[in-house]
Design a protein that fits this description.
four-stranded mixed beta sheet; 25% strand; globular
């Protein structure tokens, strides 16, 4: 992407959390520890595809913050852009299971990440990064984190760098109208839009996937990648529109599949791959992450994705 040597291929900004997932049924008092946070998942997915990745957030001066820092170190995600606060905790959440399925209970109000301000943005790391990735959840966590994300986007644009945005709409965090205004404002400043079909339908008011592509391209976004779950992906840029069908795999848990797609896709772009080649790769990586449990553990590494292609072949995007 750049003739100039960059410090990072990708810098992801947002909030990460420690997860406690109930095991053994609804009456169990046993919980399995894990990790969550959409942009953190994206950073780990990109790092597993050998991209040079950093994560930008705040965590508490507590054991949960220590766990997250250890996770990123193990995953080769640079932590030099992460700060710590002694007056605010690291966010955690619990997943419980019952007759109506699983329930998420979050403890993130007034977390360290929610208190980020533009002053917490790292020195010149943004200007020395090829691409910044943020999400709708980043904007929804708090007004100050939203301001921070928008300031980061502005700095990237001034530096001539790229911005990627995943809508990740969570209506438990904010009302639809508020979300629509903030998310669309960020998308208008982005180079790459990575919405899911469900999110885009709610945000645009449109139901036809091709109309949704045209809607977001009409905002001036150069590259729109519409994630349609098991049905695959739609892509639009100035050269046309394409459809890529999904891979049929024995899915057991789709948690974090969209985040894995984002990370794998952006890692391929950072390597200089074309958007269609990057989508083909990310489509396979996202499918593979659904055959294991959790958001982080099943994210495949490059060798696994390449072995998958050797086994089943590559599905080529087709014009629509």
């Amino acid at each position: 992407m750049e003739a100039l040597q960059m410090a990072f291929d990708i810098l992801c900004l947002g909030e990460a959390m420690v997860e406690f997932n109930q095991t053994g049924g609804a009456d169990s008092d046993q919980y399995l520890r894990g990790y969550g946070g959409d942009t953190s998942n994206c950073a780990i997915a990109a790092a597993r595809q050998d991209a040079v990745v950093a994560y930008c957030t705040l965590v508490g001066q507590d054991p949960f913050g220590d766990l997250l820092l250890d996770l990123w170190r193990q995953e080769r995600v640079d932590i030099s852009t992460i700060g710590r606060r002694s007056d605010a905790p690291t966010a955690v959440y619990f997943v419980t299971h019952g007759e109506k399925g699983h329930t998420f209970t979050y403890f993130r109000k007034d977390s360290a990440a929610s208190r980020m301000t533009p002053a917490d943005l790292p020195g010149d790391a943004l200007e020395n990064t090829k691409l910044l990735h943020v999400s709708g959840i980043t904007l929804a966590v708090s007004a100050s984190l939203r301001d921070t994300a928008m300031a980061a986007i502005t700095r990237m644009r001034k530096a001539g760098r790229k911005v990627s945005f995943d809508t990740n709409l969570r209506l438990k965090l904010w009302p639809l109208e508020t979300a629509r205004e903030a998310i669309h404002a960020a998308l208008r400043l982005s180079d790459i839009a990575l919405p899911s079909l469900e999110d885009a339908t709610a945000l645009s008011g449109l139901s036809d996937p091709l109309a949704i592509l045209d809607f977001y391209r009409g905002m001036g976004i150069p590259l729109v990648v519409l994630k349609c779950g098991a049905e695959g992906v739609l892509v639009a840029n100035a050269e046309g529109r394409w459809r890529l069908t999904g891979h049929r795999v024995p899915t057991v848990d789709a948690t974090g599949a969209g985040d894995c797609f984002d990370g794998a896709f952006l890692a391929e772009l950072a390597r200089g791959m074309s958007p269609l080649d990057a989508v083909t790769y990310a489509n396979a990586a996202a499918a593979l992450t659904t055959i294991g449990y959790g958001a982080v553990a099943p994210i495949p590494r490059r060798a696994a994705v390449e072995a998958f292609f050797t086994s089943v072949g590559r599905i080529a995007p087709q014009p629509v």
